[in-house]
Design goal:
Structural class: mainly alpha
Number of strands: 4
Radius of gyration: 25 Å
Distance between the termini: 40 Å
Order of helices and strands: HHEEHHHHHHHEEHHH
Shape: flat
Strand order of the largest sheet: 1-2
Strand content: 5-15%
Length: about 280
């Protein structure tokens, strides 16, 4: 059957179905005549199972393990149940404190006295250590801010606006083995700041959606990736100018250095987020 028919039978969108296929959760056959996907009833049932498990917050990775018979459904459900119970307990406790505070109509930030509501302050901090582990990823929060993006975009715009008048008629946009392999009109330099804007407002949605689908979503991580990409764009822009002026010759070194720094900090923050999730389990 066609993907349109699968959409009708499952009630899911085409993008959902394509994502499950991309993740290797389903493997529809291809028609020999035209190469189009040919979904079976088994594929439809698999899609329903996948979507059902995802509604319970079960990760794509766990669903993949189930589909490959690397894990038992019972153990995955037990693990998810424990996680949900922990999250529910935290939410109920937060709700209780909110209700207590709301009982005082004249309560405001200035008059809030934490000790009036928390008897064992140190124990309370310990119970909520996962929050502080997340808060401690300070560089990621700072780097992912709108201000940093604005600074990068403004810097790119100023660099492009000033340098375009002093560049040769043709500038490189592609490199091979460290040497320029493709040249374009010098006005191409003006597209670098535009790229920062497009990354922030268009590419962000795709990155955000991917993180959510893999149950590792966090706004700070998304913003970090966005600003990291903009940082690389600005680096390439600067390198292009330095290259045509004969100051530097190898783009690979610049990109590797950028990637190493950005990935290093991102992985450090991601590790803290993973520890938080593991402790919750």
């Amino acid at each position: 059957m066609t993907i349109k028919e699968v959409e009708e039978q499952t009630g899911l969108t085409r993008s959902n179905i394509r994502f499950y296929e991309k993740e290797g959760l389903i493997e529809p056959l291809r028609k020999e005549s035209n190469g189009y996907r040919d979904y079976t009833e088994q594929d439809v049932e698999a899609i329903k199972k996948i979507a059902f498990l995802r509604t319970m917050g079960i990760t794509v990775e766990d669903v993949r393990r189930l589909s490959k018979k690397e894990a038992r459904l019972h153990e995955v459900l037990e693990k998810q149940k424990k996680l949900l119970e922990e999250q529910l307990s935290e939410l109920q406790n937060a709700k209780r404190i909110c209700e207590t505070l709301l009982a005082y109509e004249k309560m405001d930030y200035e008059s809030l006295n934490v000790e009036n509501y928390i008897a064992d302050l140190e124990g309370y901090w310990s119970e909520n250590r996962s929050v502080f582990k997340l808060d401690s990823v300070s560089f990621i929060y700072l780097w992912g801010g709108t201000m940093v993006w604005g600074i990068l975009t403004l810097a790119s715009l100023l660099i492009a606006a000033v340098s375009v008048w002093y560049l040769p008629a043709r500038i490189p946009v592609q490199w091979k083995d460290g040497a320029a392999s493709s040249l374009v009109d010098r006005r191409f330099i003006l597209l670098y700041p535009a790229a920062c804007i497009l990354i922030r407002f268009l590419l962000r949605q795709g990155i955000d959606r991917w993180l959510k689908q893999n149950a590792i979503h966090n706004d700070s991580i998304t913003n970090y990736v966005i600003n990291g990409l903009c940082f690389i764009v600005v680096s390439v822009e600067v390198f292009t100018i330095l290259y045509v002026k004969g100051i530097v010759k190898n783009v690979t070194t610049v990109l590797l250095a950028d990637t190493a720094v950005l990935l290093g900090v991102l992985l450090a923050g991601w590790r803290k987020l993973s520890k938080k999730q593991e402790e919750a389990r």
